[in-house]
Amino acid sequence: MTKLKIAIQKSGRLNEESLELLKNCGISIDNGKDQLKAFARNFPLEVLYLRNGDIPQYLLDGVVDVAILGENTLIEKGDTLPIIEKLGFSKCKVSIAVPKEVEYKSIADLEGKRIATSYPNTVNQFLEQKGINSDIHVINGSVEIAPNIGLADAIVDIVSSGSTLFKNNLKEVEELLKSEAVLTVSPSLSEEKKIILDKLQFRIQSVLKARNNKYVLLNAPNEKVKDIIKILPGMKSPTVLPLAEEGWSSIHTVINKDKFWEVIDELKSNGAEGILVCPIEKMVL
Length: 285
Ligand SMILES: Nc1ncnc2c1ncn2[C@@H]1O[C@H](COP(=O)(O)OP(=O)(O)OP(=O)(O)O)[C@@H](O)[C@H]1O
Ligand SMILES: O=P(O)(O)OC[C@H]1O[C@H](OP(=O)(O)OP(=O)(O)O)[C@H](O)[C@@H]1O
Ligand SMILES: [Mg+2]
Hints:
about 280 residues; alpha/beta; D-Maltodextrin-Binding Protein, domain 2; Alpha-Beta Plaits; 3 domains; 5-stranded mixed beta sheet; binds adenosine-5'-triphosphate; binds 1-O-pyrophosphono-5-O-phosphono-alpha-D-ribofuranose; binds magnesium ion; ATP binding; histidine biosynthesis; amino-acid biosynthesis; transferase
């Protein structure tokens, strides 16, 4: 039987959440410890555990069909590979940072300076656009230490909370790009595999939609129901059911998880009571 080959990071930031996503899609993977290849029990999927940096080339060569990768890695190594789904986790930036005490005015301050990074293509492209010539040193990890040991004047690396920069006495001065985990696909995918990919992507979309929304239930006096419905930014029309207590109704709807906090005060001041916010397991639209 044809199986879709998906590459997942072997270990590191993306590994756990990528596997969690597949699990939420109802896919069970037989995983032995330190196994580099595994099969799904209930879906035509073969999982390959690889180093992130190697995955774009495997996709370009058609050895792997799809992959979960950081967008930043794709930009650095596989510019032509398409992003077919943004997955909403591992959000970060790729930024330039310099020592805190350096007075930084503009990118022109980096002319002729040494920049340490694990993302040379991304940096080169950015500097070229700005017409700046710098001396790029490629290092594979602990990039933030470079200025402190006299290896570089600036760095380009991933910034999330900013705590690594802070601990190394650095400050962010330019943002090159924003990144999150994405689903990307090989250009040489067969028609047969495309059908499997469509099924997988449909499941992923149902999981992501569910993660982004909440099921909300609330009670309200009947005369307030109209006003409350106007406030609710629901999917469609909310469900209104009578309560056992005369003159009261229960309103059920689905709300984007971020929008909920925007309307909660308004709901309460319009008479909503007993508000319940529940997670949604899957959402198929
Ligand atoms: N601090 C962070 N917060 C959020 N996302 C991050 C953070 N650091 C890295 N990432 C994202 O996770 C991806 C994987 O990072 P990680 O450091 O685990 O692996 P790597 O060293 O880039 O790759 P390899 O698998 O080749 O060793 C990065 O490409 C980036 O998209
Ligand atoms: O802004 P922050 O929240 O501090 O995150 C940024 C840090 O996270 C990543 O390193 P990671 O922890 O993945 O270690 P690594 O150097 O082994 O990749 C990245 O390379 C930065 O160093
Ligand atoms: Mg890292």
